[in-house]
Amino acid sequence: MVDLSFMRRRKLQIYLLALLIALCCLMLVACNTDISYSVTGETVSEPTHFMAKFMLTLNNAIEGGKGSFGWTVVVFTIILRLILSPLDIWQKVIARKNSKAMERMRPQLESLQAKYGEDKQRLQQEQMALYKKEKYSTMGMCLPTIITMVVFFVVFAGFRQMVGYQFAKDYRASLNTFNESIQSQIDENKETLGFEDVDGNGVVDVYDIPNTSQGVGFLADALDKAQTDVLDTYNSDEQKGMRKWLWIHNIFVGDNWSKAVPDFVTVTGQKGWATSRLTGITKDEYERVMAKVLNNKDAGGYGKNGSWNGLLILPVLSIVLSFLSTKLLSGSQGQPPTPPAGEAGAAQGQSMKAMQWVMPVMMGVFGLLYSGAFALYMFTSSLTAILFSLIFNIIGKLIDKSRSKGANPNIAVR
Question: Do the beta carbons of residue 78 and residue 305 sit within 8 Å?
């Protein structure tokens, strides 16, 4: 009967994990129907992902959308953690129960290891029977973690859309400035230079400039002036204030060695990791409009020619805080006895150590390869999780201390 119960439990866990993974994939597909932005119109369409919409609404509410998006990310993360706090509490309550159960079971588990150490299957059966008797939840700790992973990737999709949206907004604003500058110069000089409406569309525009030495010279000067105007617009307080956050010049670019101003292959999704794609532009057009922005150190950056957008601070902090958060969670759950010596015991010990590094390494990869905004989200999320864990542990110890005093007959007499 014990063996049958063990097998059923294992099958149930496998089926449940498979179902959750399938649901996770469905959610990711549903939330990522469109990751491209067209810049052919006068304005850029807003994001469609519900997380990106929430971030955009929050950003518009903070300083009228003119403040740094980095602070919007901090506020967004805190709100999201508050919304998910019941899940955190559930996980930590289960962890405390498991810790207390493990304290009671430890002598018995050590006895089982000594008695059935050579018979792995029998040892597992006896351990599962003891877990069931003491109500030690193995699956209860997995469910919140899996749900947290689903939320992680859903939020990641939202940030991906926000990055593409901001790239599109920056370029659309630059292109509008470029076209307006060229046209205003034509309007100011068309009578003096004799420019006429050759194509008959009712407006003297760039297509009506004659291919003469005078026309070519005018276009060269107009192009230089328009590119300067684009640089001034890009570096204006309104646009620069949105991108700048503390040491990071462009929060929508990684806190790493990437340039603060994305190049053509980056904004069109040909380079970079999981970046939304801009459509409706060509390489020649992008580089003509953004020429002085791409080659100007004032647009932001460290090192020679402003080649570094950040200083790798957020990716490193994300790894450290994620590791600390994992250690706090595993420590509060209560660990089983040291595995028996030998090949199997060594493998089990290595697996447990490897699991503690999986999440921190993943956080580092995301923080290093993706936008500074998402790295900031991971950092803030890990920091709030650690603070929440510390507060929960302090409250739990106070409750345990109060209960232990109430159960003490000597204190009761007093």
Answer: no
- Only one residue has tokens 């010279």, namely 217
Residue 218 tokens, joined: 């005018």
Q: Which two tokens stand for residue 204?
A: 């003297």
56: nearest Cα among 37, 41, 69, 43: 69
Q: Taking the domains of the chain in order of start, what are their residue ranges?
A: 162-251+258-306
Q: 221 and 136 in contact (C-beta within 8 Å)? A: no
First-to-final CA distance of the chain = 50
Cβ(318)–Cβ(364) under 8 Å?
A: yes
Q: What is the pLDDT of residues 129-162, one digit of tens each?
A: 777 777 776 665 566 667 777 788 888 888 988 9
Neighbouring-strand partners of residue 308: 302
Question: Across residues 282-291, what is the average pLDDT?
Answer: 91
- pLDDT tens track for 357-371: 666 777 777 788 888
Lowest average pLDDT, out of 67-81, 211-225, 305-319, goes to: 305-319
**Tokens coding 407:** 């159960």
| The two three-digit tokens of residue 10, written as one number | 């294992």
Q: Does the reported pTM lie above 0.90?
A: no
Q: What are phi and psi of 194, to 5 degrees?
A: 75, 30
Going by C-alpha positions, the residue among 221, 236, 233, 239 that lies closest to residue 182 is 221
